[in-house]
């Protein structure tokens, strides 16, 4: 089971070896994570709008990285996403994740997506995440 959680650099969001992945750079520290990325049209739903599944995936990744910064291993048990406004392709966005509560082997994390340099939330999420030490 431990092999299941080894990083083989093929993650859809952050893996550099995945030819169809997003290749996002992610910074995480002290219960917080940040992704700064521009999503191309190949990942759109409606014309010029990033597909909701991609936005959900980015929020999940940011929240998992936030949890991983305080524990060796983390997996999402439950996630909820709220789409507030259309998020356009080819614009730089910032995806933020933050651990807001920790209780034993569980954390609750929150995430948000904004256009770079702006403060309005375009998409928000919350996740229940299982954590454990290796």
From TrEMBL:
Residues 48-113 form the Thioesterase domain. Pfam families: 4HBT. GO terms for molecular function: acyl-CoA hydrolase activity. It comes from the Bacteria. SUPFAM superfamilies: Thioesterase/thiol ester dehydrase-isomerase. InterPro entries: HotDog_dom_sf (IPR029069), PAAI_dom (IPR003736), PTE-AB_protein (IPR052061), Thioestr_dom (IPR006683). Keywords: Hydrolase. NCBIfam families: unchar_dom_1. PANTHER family: THIOESTERASE FAMILY PROTEIN (AFU_ORTHOLOGUE AFUA_7G03960), UPF0644 PROTEIN PB2B4.06. This is PaaI family thioesterase. It comes from candidate division WOR-3 bacterium.
């Amino acid at each position: 089971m431990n092999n299941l959680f080894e990083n083989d650099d093929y993650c859809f969001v952050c893996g550099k070896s995945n030819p169809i992945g997003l290749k996002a750079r992610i910074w995480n520290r002290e219960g917080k994570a940040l992704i700064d990325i521009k999503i191309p049209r190949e990942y759109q739903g409606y014309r010029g709008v990033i597909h909701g599944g991609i936005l959900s995936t980015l929020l999940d990744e940011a929240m998992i990285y936030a949890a991983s910064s305080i524990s060796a291993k983390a997996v999402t048990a439950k996630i909820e996403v709220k789409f507030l406004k259309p998020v356009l392709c080819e614009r730089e966005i910032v995806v933020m994740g933050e651990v807001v509560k920790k209780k034993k082997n569980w954390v609750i994390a929150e995430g948000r997506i904004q256009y770079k340099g702006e403060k309005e939330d375009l998409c928000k999420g919350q996740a229940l995440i299982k954590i454990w030490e290796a």
